């Protein structure tokens, strides 16, 4: 069945003029006007400089609606920092999202582009889970060599092998930077192609203020994201049972193999100090897990999935905190907002 006949084209031209007057980009208007079918998905190419990411276009004659991109997502344009009891003076950006009813409970600089450090690895995990098989064997090449001073490593050498399942656990529990490169090369065919996949997935999720240049988050001036974009990514990642299982682990122990088949032991605790018991969550809040990130450029970063006493889920993000103690103290303050 054709959805647009000659009699409707005049209506569409009027619609196009109306949308232009409202300030919508011409490229997006053209795509919206190409179809009048109810419930037809609209494939939109996102650009980082677009200031529109949610649409609800209705033709009065046809009474048909394009489902908004942000349907089911938390959306905030401006800061939401009315509660002065939340101290975020030691962080550059922070946010708290209530997932069940799509509310933003707190927002500070959530659209500011910042370095994400190892929070990058959430997207690395998403692309790997979407395109790989947990049981497949990954083989290291010289691409896993990391020369960054102080970078967290599990000591991979060329010829080492482990499964994707093992690699994801080391990636998310211990935040190993060489394992991120192992995953990237084996899942993407090359590290460079995997990074393209990461950016493509970010655009598909609506994370238009994000650009990745590596799969581990080590410093690069062109590697950035926002607190809001990280929420979009984390919200996608928790759709995977394996991801939820891994981020809840307090430690991980396994054995992988070198090129000669000799065992190499791995046994490390999580980098998440809530899960290690160094800090406690507010009363009636359970921290399921999350991802940490720390570099000199990014400061101390943390993203969490938590639940209230009724099981309702929340995502919280803090970027560029001034030290570990400030990070966890402020995160506890942020989580207190769940019951206010």
Radius of gyration: 22 Å
Q: What gap, in angstroms, lies between the N and C termini?
A: 52 Å
Average predicted local confidence, pLDDT: 86
Order of helices and strands: HHEEEEHEEHHHHHEEEEEH
The biggest beta sheet is recorded as: 5 strands, antiparallel
SS field, number of helical segments: 9
Helix share of residues? Answer: 25-40%
Low-confidence stretches: 1-22, 26-42, 47-66
Number of separate strands: 11
Biggest sheet, spatial arrangement of strands:
4-3-11-10-9
Strand content: 15-25%
Shape: globular
Mind explaining what this structure looks like?
This protein is of the alpha+beta class and 340 residues long. The chain contains 9 helices and 11 strands. It has a 5-stranded antiparallel β-sheet, sandwiched between helices. Strands 1-2 form a two-stranded antiparallel ribbon. Helix 3 runs antiparallel to helix 4, helix 3 crosses helix 6 (191-204) and helix 4 runs antiparallel to helix 5. Residues 1-22, 26-42 and 47-66 have low confidence and may be disordered.
């Amino acid at each position: 069945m054709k959805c647009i006949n000659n009699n409707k084209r005049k209506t569409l031209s009027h619609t196009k003029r109306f949308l232009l007057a409202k300030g919508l980009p011409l490229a997006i208007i053209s795509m919206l006007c190409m179809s009048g079918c109810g419930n037809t998905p609209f494939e939109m190419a996102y650009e980082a400089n677009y200031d529109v990411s949610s649409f609800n276009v209705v033709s009065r004659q046809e009474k048909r609606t394009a489902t908004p991109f942000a349907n089911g997502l938390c959306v905030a344009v401006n800061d939401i920092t009315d509660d002065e009891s939340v101290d975020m003076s030691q962080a550059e950006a922070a946010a708290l999202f209530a997932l069940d009813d799509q509310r933003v409970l707190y927002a500070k600089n959530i659209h500011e582009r910042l370095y994400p450090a190892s929070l990058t690895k959430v997207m690395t995990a998403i692309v790997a889970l979407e395109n790989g098989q947990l049981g497949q064997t990954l083989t290291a090449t010289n691409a896993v060599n990391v020369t960054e001073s102080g970078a967290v490593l599990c000591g991979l050498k060329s010829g080492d092998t482990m499964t994707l399942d093992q690699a994801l656990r080391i990636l998310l529990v211990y935040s190993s930077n060489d394992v991120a490169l192992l995953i990237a090369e084996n899942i993407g065919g090359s590290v460079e192609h995997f990074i393209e996949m990461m950016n493509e997935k970010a655009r598909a999720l609506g994370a238009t203020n994000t650009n990745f240049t590596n799969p581990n988050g080590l410093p690069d001036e062109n590697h950035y994201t926002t607190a809001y974009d990280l929420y979009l990514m984390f919200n996608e990642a928790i759709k995977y049972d394996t991801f939820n299982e891994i981020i809840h682990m307090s430690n991980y122990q396994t054995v992988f193999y070198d090129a000669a088949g000799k065992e190499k032991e791995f046994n490390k605790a999580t980098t998440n100090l809530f899960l290690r018991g160094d800090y406690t969550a507010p009363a009636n809040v359970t921290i399921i897990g999350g991802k940490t990130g720390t570099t000199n450029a990014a400061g101390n970063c943390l993203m969490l999935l938590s639940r209230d006493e009724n099981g309702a889920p929340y995502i919280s993000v803090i970027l560029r905190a001034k030290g570990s103690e400030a990070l966890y103290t402020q995160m506890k303050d942020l989580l207190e907002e769940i019951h206010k």
